[in-house]
Amino acid sequence: MTQLLCKAEYEAQVAQSRDKRMQWWREARFGMFVHYGLYSQIGRNEWCMALENIPVAEYEKLADTFCPKPGAPREWAQLAKAAGMKYMVLTTRHHEGFSLWDSKANPFNSVNYGPHRDIVREFVEACREFDLKIGFYSSLMDWHHPDGGRAAYDSAARKRFNDYIEALNTELLTQYGKIDILWYDVPAPMEHYEGWNSLEMNQRLRALQPHIIINDRSRLSEDFGTPEEHVTASDRDWEACMTFNGISWGYVDTQQASAYAYNAQRILRMLNTCSNGCGNLLLNIGPAPDGSVPEDAVEPLTKVGQWLKRNGEAAYGLKKSGRGGWLSQPYGGNGVSGASCSLDGKTIYLWNWIWPKGGEMALGGYREAPERVYLLSDHTPIDFELKGHRIVLKNLPEKCPDEVAGVAVIAMEFSKAPEYLFASYVPPLHGGLDIAGENKI
């Protein structure tokens, strides 16, 4: 039996092992979220049961017609691998309360209904085939369970419901071998971790998989934060979870949604912000009713994967420059317009969103010249010189050399971690530095 700790002791224990447990995650930077469930058949929104007040008895009928095609999870994993993603997170049970595995705690599941298959097992096997880390999304909300709403005000219902939630997660962490992420969602109706017994539950679950990492949505901070539908750096490990279209996590009509879907360039912009800010991007797909990947996701993700094969060094791993520094500024990155940067030790990677005309580009705010400058994709050398506090890149190709997404990365290697001024020049009216680097504030 696990000896339970008080909150301070538990959080200290978690913090002590965090760096070791999070090492792979910090290197990964890019993962796939998969929202799949009965709501996929309705095709309007994964919250449709609640938003449209669909009665439980009516909604339950969707379980009989739910039928993912054989090999659907493998299709997701294959695309994730092609996209350069390193892990996947599946909605094993969304708020609708339908479990995608052979659950004894919840008979309302995909083995007793619909396909009569364990979709979670198929997902796990697909992840392992394509060498992807495995994450289980587990909602703390359940619209199907009779105690799901009563738990907020009925102590007996809360006890039953908490036992049910823990039993579900215990099944998930004991039936499929090593699992890498437990991804909680929506801790309503409880407003405090004590309402969920999260402190006790998470200790028991961690005892089952000591290496696992847990997000912050059980009302405890745990291992990483989860900004949703915005990519914003934090002073802790963080993961931006993003829909593919800003409309729905679950499946919606591809023909209509494609106009709102991300293209490869928008995905790379988000990935750059994550890499800059020491965070991850968890980008969602909402499979069609039969489990197929929506068409509007295939081409952009495939293109991002092709780009990462050539330029992944600029994206993966722990880039230590992004939190609050000049490299994270949205208007120019590192003293150059139309680009952003990521920094890894002695190397700066310049992600060029807008390729300069005229064969020349200048980067402001440097004290020393780099030792070497080159295109990251093929290591073609780039001519340069230091003029004052400006690094001038010369004899650049007339057109952007990246044929995949039009986003070329220039690497600049220094003899030591580069020192750069806040700016080479900011008008005195606004404060800043003059051309000589003297403080004008």
Keywords:
4-stranded antiparallel β-sheet, disordered C terminus, alpha/beta, 14 strands, 14 helices
Walkthrough of the structure:
The chain is α/β, with parallel strands linked by helices and 441 residues long. Helix content is 30%, strand content 17%. The chain has helices at residues 7-28, 39-42, 48-51, 56-60, 62-65, 72-82, 119-129, 147-150, 155-172, 193-196, 198-208, 254-257, 264-276, 295-311, and strands spanning 30-34, 87-93, 133-139, 181-185, 213-214, 238-242, 279-285, 339-344, 347-352, 361-364, 372-375, 383-387, 390-394, 408-413. The strands form three sheets. It has a seven-stranded parallel β-sheet, with helices on both faces. It has a four-stranded antiparallel β-sheet with strand order 8-9-14-11. The chain has a three-stranded antiparallel β-sheet with strand order 10-13-12, with no helix packed on it. The protein starts with 6 loop residues before the first helix and ends in a 28-residue tail after the last strand.
Residues in helix, %: 25-40%
Largest beta-sheet details: 7 strands, parallel
List low-pLDDT spans.
321-333, 422-441
Distance, first to last CA: 61 Å
Radius of gyration: 24 Å
Helix-strand makeup class: alpha/beta
Based on Cα principal axes, name the global outline: globular
Tell me what portion of residues adopts beta-strand conformation.
Answer: 15-25%
Element string (H = helix, E = strand): HEHHHHHEHEHHEHHEEHHEHEEEEEEE
The spatial strand order of the largest sheet comes to 5-4-3-2-1-7-6
Number of helices: 14
**Count of individual beta strands:** 14
